[in-house]
Amino acid sequence: MLIRNTPSWQLTDKDVTPEHLYLNRRSIMAAGGALAATAFAGACSAQDSGEAAPHTANADGSLNYATTDYRITDGDLTPVEAVTGYNNFYEFGTGKDDPARYADAMTTDPWSVEVTGHAARTGTFAVEDLVDFSALEERIYRLRCVEAWSMVIPWIGVPLSSILNRFEPTSDARYVAFETYLNREEMRGVRFPVLDWPYREGLRLDEAMNPLAFMAVGLYGNVLPNQNGAPMRLVVPWKYGFKSIKSIVRISFVSEEPVTTWKQSAPREYGFYSNVNPERSHPRWSQASERIIGAGPFARRDTEMFNGYGEAVADLYAGMDLNENY
Ligand SMILES: Nc1nc2c(c(=O)[nH]1)N[C@H]1C(S)=C(S)[C@@H](COP(=O)(O)O)O[C@H]1N2
Ligand SMILES: [Mo]
Fold first, then answer.
1. Which of 57, 71, 74, 213 is least surrounded by Cβ atoms within 10 Å, i.e. has the fewest?
2. Which atom of ligand 1 is nearest the CA belonging to 88?
3. Is 112 marked as binding a ligand?
4. Which residues are registered as beta bridge partners of 124?
5. What are the residue boundaries of the structural domains of the chain, listed by start?
6. Which of 180, 227, 246 to mutate to test the pocket of ligand 1 (most atoms within 8 A of CB)?
């Protein structure tokens, strides 16, 4: 189950992760909302004046962050070797070990993100200007792949809403669409028409603004490895893993449901919503249970509705038929 005692955006100074889970942590208190706003305003002018980008990670690649009360209490963390060695990132190949092997070829610094569509502010921003690195938090979320396996990962990042709100989306913005980086030299997998590149995903705006929706820039205390979607990737914990789009270069506020890669490739198998739902089988396999990655060949658990996050997100779908809207 998911524990949430404090308001989602409120950072706490208590270390909520049981110590035996992992010891190499550097929690600090973040400065809070006022600083976040200044960082953004300052960042825009920094870009104009050509000043150096704000310092984001420590020299050894570690990040400073506070912990929140968002955490999973049933299940151990997935070993870091499995989190970074067993991946889906088809731009680097369809094998689970292809991303770890080949994603180093991707250039992630500098990195800019284009923000377009129905919003008061749009433009191109460096990742350091989109994400407030002085307000990072850690959230232990389960990622449940549509392929019926799951991992529990200590992510580091910021609420997605904290990024989106700064652009002041207008009332025409009903959805938000995301696009992954595409580079034929650096991504060997895109030479094959496995998917219609670039990889695209989307959320209804109210889903994107839900406090659980998270933009990750790190995991296990350090900046994201490329294979996990450096420098920033979504984590939408109540949806199947493919909604958690990696290495984002475009964010668009749109009025119609955007095209999403997996729905486009097999609409009978993958819908726009893709909420984790043990009662709705994939046409080719059951979604009732899942393999626990990194816990031995036979470790399984029952899949929970909304991946266990129902308390926080069920209201988003009140009155909707989730068999129709899969
Ligand atoms: N750009 C891009 N994002 C992607 C994918 C991908 O192939 N390309 N795979 C998705 C799938 S199916 C899953 S399960 C998660 C896996 O994230 P992880 O490798 O960090 O565990 O990334 C998602 N994001
Ligand atoms: Mo997945």
1. 74
2. 9
3. no
4. 114
5. 13-317
6. 246
How far, in Å, CA of 263 to CA of 282, rounded? 13
Known binder of ligand: residue 226? no
pLDDT digits (tens, 9 = 90+) for 49-62: 344 434 589 989 99
**CA–centroid distance, residue 70 to ligand 2 (Å):** 22
Q: Tokens 């002041």 correspond to what residue?
A: 168
* Pocket residues: Cβ below 6 A from ligand 1: 87-91, 143, 145, 180, 199, 228-229, 241-242, 244-247
Nearest ligand to residue 199 Cα: 1
Q: Which helix (H) or strand (E) holds 84?
A: helix 80-85
Q: Is 185 exposed, middle or buried (0-12, 13-18, 19+ CB in 10 A)?
A: exposed
Please classify residue 192 by burial: count the beta carbons closer than 10 Å to its beta carbon, then call 0-12 exposed, 13-18 middle and 19+ buried: exposed
Question: What's 86's DSSP letter?
Answer: S
Residue among 226, 251, 45, 35 nearest 132 (CA): 35
Model confidence pLDDT, tens digit, residues 276-310: 999 999 999 999 999 999 999 999 999 999 999 99
Task: Give the whole-angstrom CA distance, residue 6 versus residue 275.
Answer: 25
Dump strand ranges (E) for the chain. 2-3, 66-67, 71-72, 112-117, 123-126, 137-145, 149-159, 175-180, 200-204, 214-219, 222-223, 233-235, 248-254, 289-292, 300-302
- Say if residue 233 carries a ligand binding annotation: yes
CA atoms within 13 A on the CB side of 226: 20
Output the pLDDT for position 277.
Answer: 98
**Domain 13-317: CATH architecture, name and number where available:** Alpha-Beta Complex (3.90)
Q: What three-state secondary structure class fits 142?
A: strand
Please enumerate in sequence order all residues whose Cβ is within 8 A of that of 38, keeping only pairs 6 or more positions apart, or say none.
none
Pocket test for ligand 1, best of 88, 238, 269 (most atoms within 8 A of CB): 88
Task: Tell the residue nearest (CA) to atom 21 of ligand 1.
Answer: 87
Q: Is 90 annotated as a binding residue?
A: yes
| 180 known member of a binding site | yes
- Rounded mean pLDDT of 116-141? 97
